[in-house]
UniProtKB/TrEMBL annotation:
A single MF term (Gene Ontology): transmembrane transporter activity
Family recorded in the similarity comment: Belongs to the major facilitator superfamily. Sugar transporter (TC 2.A.1.1) family.
Span of domain Major facilitator superfamily (MFS) profile: 8-498
Organism: Lutibacter agarilyticus
Annotated membrane topology: Multi-pass membrane protein
Stated name of the protein: MFS transporter, sugar porter (SP) family
Compartments where located: Membrane
Keywords in alphabetical order: Membrane, Transmembrane, Transmembrane helix, Transport
Keyword Transmembrane helix applies: yes
Length: 512
């Protein structure tokens, strides 16, 4: 595997880094922007989830559009849109401006998440495709890590009484930092070649052969060229494909597999955990500062286990990683539910008098009252203080009142993240880049990406409502139950694609 190939794969998947960065950043931003704009649960959900809503549209059209104008050209536009989104988000003066700016970024990462694995699969050989496509997921989790680290640092400066950072402006700097990686992505994209398989589909044969030879060398390049030419000889062109053709009986099995994996990746709650990580850790009563630092630990775990996936995916195969990961995800989420179920809440007179940012006397009537669930406790706190004051001080109030074992929840969250990072995270994109014939690949991945993004948007949108209405324990119990069912579904239907060329996979899984 040449250094040039690794460099190209890393650059193309920088869109994944920006997606991860955006997702990680918003979990800290909402701790400040939410109270500043006095957002309701629905508005909080929309600010967080609006990029995923925009991504749905981008995913639906970007694959097909790239079949016409090329993967590379669209990814250059993607990088530019990321930069614009970062600037507008940082300067947002209202709830409406903030979510519109974030939706611009959503269009960008929706296209990037579809096109990066597609492009990488089209320049890779069967032997290294899993590793290279997994670089997309590695960049995503590196983005998460960079974002949580940035959030932690900026929050630390603000909490230490900095005269430069305040509660009113620190979140703007959190959002604005994204401009830096977006600019690098835009510049580097000009140094990658066009997809050779796309060039073949446009009859630009000489250019395609030059790209393959420059990436793989003449010997391996000749093998890849022969494989693609044989595929084209069978009439597999990438133009004039209608949506209804995905419903053909010959494609039914691989479409079902893709849809199941696409739904499971999001419906188990991964983006609820990532996008609301700081809020979730606050629920354990560890305090705001510790919640930000726990986010760094969470994202570091993602990086470590994504590297594990890259090392194992072409050795163990896609199926074993995905099944082991799904089992671990289910167990971890159920552990979180158990940990939150054991929590109780009580404020003493000393704790009430220690609050400095609001009038603690408003809570005097609740002194010594024991709550066995978070719903009743939060309802009384909001009733006494008002939603905005409670939101600004939730971390401190829960830290004072909560009696639970936060290690259980932390272990559950980290276990979930670790298992996701070596299974559903990278394996889904690898499988989607492999399962579909060249003729249908852009459209099929776009449709499944749309469904994946819709589920992601839905989970992000309703998660604040779930916490407020169902409570912490029941919310995680639902996620854990879904993951359990998902494991048994995948056990029955999941194929193995390890070590097979794209054309070989097509001949085995697409029935005439």
């Amino acid at each position: 595997m040449s250094k040039k190939l690794v460099f190209i794969a890393f650059v193309v998947s920088l869109g994944g880094f920006l997606f991860g960065f955006d997702a990680g950043i918003i979990s800290g931003v909402m701790s400040y922007a939410g109270p500043e704009f006095n957002l309701s649960d629905g508005q909080t959900g929309w600010v967080v989830s609006s990029p995923s809503f925009a991504a749905m549209i981008a995913m639906l059209i970007s694959g097909r559009l790239s079949d016409y104008i090329g993967r590379k050209k669209i990814l250059i536009y993607v990088a530019f849109a990321y930069a614009i989104s970062a600037l507008l988000s940082a300067y947002a003066t209202s709830y409406e401006m903030l979510y519109i700016a974030r939706m611009i970024g959503g269009f960008a990462f929706g296209a990037a998440l579809i096109l990066a694995p597609t492009y990488i699969a089209e320049i890779s050989t069967a032997e290294n495709r899993g590793k290279l496509v997994s670089i997309q997921q590695l960049n995503i989790v590196l983005g998460f890590f960079a974002a949580f680290l940035s959030n932690y640092y900026l929050n630390h400066l603000n909490s230490q009484g900095s005269t430069f950072f305040t509660d009113e402006n620190v979140w703007r700097y959190m959002l604005g930092v994204e401009l830096v990686p977006a600019t690098f992505y835009f510049i580097f994209m000009f140094f990658v070649p066009r997809s050779p398989r796309w060039l073949f589909s446009k009859n630009r044969l000489k250019e395609a052969k030059n790209v393959l030879n420059s990436i793989h060398g003449e010997q391996q390049g000749a093998i890849e060229i022969k494989s693609i030419e044989e595929n084209i000889q069978e009439g597999k062109q990438t133009s004039k494909i209608a949506f209804k053709e995905l419903l053909k009986p010959s494609l039914r099995f691989i479409i079902i597999v893709g849809l199941v994996i696409g739904v499971l990746q999001q419906i188990t709650g991964i983006n609820a955990v990532y996008f609301y990580a700081t809020s979730i850790f606050k629920q354990t009563g560890i305090g705001t500062d510790a919640a930000f630092s726990s986010g760094v630990l969470l994202s570091f775990t993602s990086v470590v286990f994504t590297v594990v996936a890259i090392l194992l995916i072409d050795r163990m195969g896609r199926r074993p990683l995905l099944l082991v990961g799904m089992a671990g995800i289910a167990i971890s989420l159920l552990l979180c539910a158990y940990g939150f179920h054991q929590a109780t809440y009580k404020l003493t007179s000393e704790e009430i008098s220690s609050f400095e940012n609001f009038d603690g006397n408003k809570l005097a009537s609740y002194e010594g009252k024991v709550y066995d669930n978070d719903l009743d406790f939060k309802r009384d706190m909001k009733s006494a203080l008002g939603n905005q004051v409670y939101a600004k001080n939730e971390g401190a109030i829960l830290e004072a009142a909560t009696d639970m074992n936060p290690v259980l929840v932390l272990a559950g969250i980290l276990g979930f993240i670790a298992c996701f990072a070596f299974s559903l995270g990278p394996v889904m994109w690898v499988l989607l880049s492999e399962l579909y014939p060249n003729k249908y690949r852009g459209l099929a991945i776009g449709v499944i990406g749309f469904v994946n993004s819709f589920v992601s948007w839905l989970i992000q949108q309703i998660f604040p409502w779930e916490l407020s209405t169902l409570g912490n324990a029941l919310t995680f119990l639902i996620f854990g139950t879904i993951a359990t069912f998902g494991f048994f579904i995948l056990l029955k239907i999941l194929p193995e694609t390890k070590g097979k060329s794209l054309e070989q996979i097509e001949s085995e899984l697409v029935t005439d």
